[in-house]
Amino acid sequence: VIADLWNERVNLYPDIAWDSLKKEAPRVKIANILIQADRNGELKSPREDIHSYVLQHIGTDDIYTYTYILLTLTVFDEPEDVQKILNVATTKDFTFFNTSVSILARMCNQKAKEALDFLESEIEDESKINYLLETREKNAAFKEKTDWCQISKFKD
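The structure corresponding to this sequence follows.
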């Protein structure tokens, strides 16, 4: 059903409020569910379409939608996405900063590590630095304990 929602198969579900589902927030959440299911080996998703869609919306001002965008990007763990996340971290408010840092710390690629290094050296706000250091430490322990960087890969 979720793949049908992503693919907008209106004819299969004519009673669904499609106008609502086509909006940014619900569509990003559908993308996240699909990509998580794909990563877990439960179904194949249109990875390129999902990746492209969420990247197009990374500049959203809605923190909840932004969080789902980043959760989706974490599954891809693409080094090319890091700069866009970093741009949000450095240009938006504290909540967007925290969300960005949390996701960068969860990612497993070298560019994400370098982005956190950059933020640590450039940020002057003590509360942001403390959050970054604490988040980085917690995620490093989580990754080591769970072998996150291996288990979080797509099961092709």
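DSSP finds ten helices and no strands in the chain.
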